[in-house]
Amino acid sequence: MKDKTLASFCDAHGKLCIALATTAFGMGVDCRELHVIYHWRAPSNLEQYPQETGQARRDTFPSRAVLEI
Q1: Predicted local confidence at residue 28, as pLDDT
Q2: Locate the Helicase C-terminal domain: which residues (predicted)?
């Protein structure tokens, strides 16, 4: 599982690509190459979750969101 998780943060050439951000990242920032959203804790309200996870699907490539509660 560790290798699979690590691989999900790498590009096609095996380069590790990670961005750490606060909720402010989703406000007006357009990052088209973002394909995995990982939440450490649930957002303060449920209306924020679709907004924050929507950042991962801006370039039409498959994306996913992970929520650790």
Answers
A1: 60
A2: 3-58
Residue 52 falls inside a structural domain: yes
The domain total for the chain is 1
Domain assignment present for residue 7? The answer is no
Give domain status of residue 12, yes or no: no
DSSP 23: G
Q: Which residues of the chain have pLDDT under 50?
A: none
Instruction: Print the domain residue range for 23.
Output: 18-67
User: Whole-prediction pTM value?
Assistant: 0.59
Give the contacts of 26 (CB within 8 A, at least 6 positions apart). 51, 52, 54, 55
Whether residue 4 lies inside any domain: the answer is no
The reported pLDDT for the residue numbered 29 is 62
- The confidence score (pLDDT) of residue 69 equals 82
- φ/ψ region of 28 (left if φ > 0, alpha if ψ in -120 to 50, else beta) reads left
